[in-house]
Amino acid sequence: MPERVHNFNPGPATLPYEVLKESARGVVNFKDLGMSIMEISHRSKDFEGLMHDAMADILGLMGLSADEYVVLFLGGGASLQFCMVPDNFLSADQTADYVNTGAWSKAAIKEAKLFGKVNIAATSEDRNFSYVPTAFKLTPGAAYVHVTSNNTIFGTRMTSFPEPGDVPMVCDMSSDFLSRKMDFSRFSLIYAGAQKNIGPAGVTAVIVRKSWVEKAKDGVPTMLSYKTHMSKDSLFNTPPVFPIYVVGLVMKWLKQQGGLEAIEKVNGAKAALVYGAIDGSNGFYRGTVEPASRSIMNLTFRLATEELEGKFIDEAKKKQLIGLKGHRDVGGCRASMYNALPLEAAEKLAEFMEEFRKAN
Ligand SMILES: Cc1ncc(COP(=O)(O)O)c(C=O)c1O
Predict the structure, then answer these.
(1) Hey, which residues are catalytic here?
(2) pTM of the entire structure?
(3) Percent of the chain topping pLDDT 90
(4) Cα gap 92→260, rounded to integer Å
(5) 148 C-beta closer than 6 A to ligand 1
(6) What's the 352 CA to ligand 1 centre distance in angstroms?
(7) Which of 64, 116, 210, 338 is spaced 20 to 30 Å from 318 by Cα?
(8) For ligand 1, mutation pick of 157, 174, 204, 338 (most atoms within 8 Å of CB)
(9) Widest pairwise Cα distance in the chain
(10) Which of 171, 175, 196 to mutate to test ligand 1, by most ligand atoms within 8 A of the CB atom?
(11) Cα–Cα distance between 220 and 162 in angstroms, integer?
(12) CB of residue 309 inside a 6 A radius of ligand 1
């Protein structure tokens, strides 16, 4: 096995090699302190410094002001945000609007119903989530609107979002966070589990408008309250120190790549190669998503039979193309191509797809 394979895993996913090497050094001896990053105090200046840099880099990359927004580093995965959002912002007598674009939206909706009323503002379930809705039935005066920008499992992404006016908008950006330029200021709260685009599993980035946190409900359990984490600067309790360290390194790497505009170009080029191989295959590969809704992070496709799909995945593995099996709930194939996946990996996959098609 070479030191690096072409890693198309959906998350945990590939990370920049430079970051892995740097974090390996930090694991053994962080900043020549004679201690591992995992051994230093989360209250030390060294840790607080790197955490604040990571927070500032995230806001900088997003073009958001630290006067308006705060970055929180929390545990519990993106899944904990499914209940934290309504726990903080949805009362029993209020309605929240949810856009249902697949499994992760459904998981968020299920939790919201524990706290208040849910209106499904739009859904693409009628065609098995093979597209994203572009028209939304919003509730006047809703507590908030919740969307999922990229559907990891079905391979769709939103490019047009609801425009709810004064109603705050919340976005689960777990699988395309910091992969493309967008007007982030349209959202009042964005959350993303780190393990796809920004780091290892174990930390969730929450970017939230400070003035909205101030309006959050009272009586929320301490650890689930955004007010707690905002007032204590993500240091109410021991935060996930090592994942935050790696997120900080990934943010520096992303800035070196030229930020979101530059990475979006590379991501677009990678996706064009693989969608090109699908669309140019005379139906040998079938994309599962309507072209206008295609994700550039998770590319889903099918072959004629499950047997052929199995063969495709096995032979790809022999060429060091790893992680191409679709999600267990939907089957088929999926190539996840997050920021850190090099262009070369997409080239190799497109070449292999062509070879495999000719041979089969
Ligand atoms: C869009 C989206 N939301 C939420 C989750 C759940 O994330 P976690 O495992 O961090 O709870 C995932 C995981 O794949 C996801 O893709």
Answers:
(1) 104, 172, 196
(2) 0.98
(3) 98
(4) 39
(5) yes
(6) 29
(7) 338
(8) 174
(9) 63
(10) 175
(11) 28
(12) no
Q: Is 336 in the pocket of ligand 1 (CB under 6 A)?
A: no
Cβ(156) – ligand 1 distance below 6 Å: no
Residue where the block lists tokens 């394979």: 5
Give the pLDDT band of residue 3 (cuts 50, 70, 90): confident
Q: Which two tokens stand for residue 234?
A: 């993500």
Residue in 84, 152, 297, 298 to alter for ligand 1 test, most ligand atoms within 8 A of Cβ: 152
Question: What's the rounded Cα separation, in Å, for the pair 199 and 248?
Answer: 8
- What is the rounded CA–CA span in Å between residue 73 and residue 58? 11
Distances (CA, A) of 92 to 80, 89, 208, 237, 243: 19, 10, 23, 29, 35
Residue 268 has pLDDT above 70, yes or no: yes
| Token couple for 160 | 């047009």
**Alpha-carbon torsion, ordered 183, 188, 194, 195, to 10 deg:** -80
**Which atom of ligand 1 is least distant from the CA of 204?**
10
Using DSSP, state whether 6 is helix, strand or coil: strand
Beta-carbon contacts of 94 under 8 Å, excluding residues fewer than 6 positions away, are: 116, 117, 142, 143
Hey, CA dihedral for 230, 159, 9, 270, is it positive or negative? negative
pLDDT digit string, tens, across residues 22-62: 999 999 999 999 999 999 999 999 999 999 999 999 999 99
How long, in residues, is the chain? 360
CA angle 116, 82, 136 (to 5 degrees): 70
Q: Please classify residue 324 by burial: count the beta carbons closer than 10 Å to its beta carbon, then call 0-12 exposed, 13-18 middle and 19+ buried.
A: buried
Q: How far is the CA of 243 from the centre of ligand 1 (A)?
A: 16
Ligand 1 center to 119 CA (angstroms): 22
Strands 189-193 and 169-172: parallel
What is the C-alpha R_g of the chain? 21
Is the sign of the CA dihedral 22, 28, 30, 33 positive or negative? Answer: negative
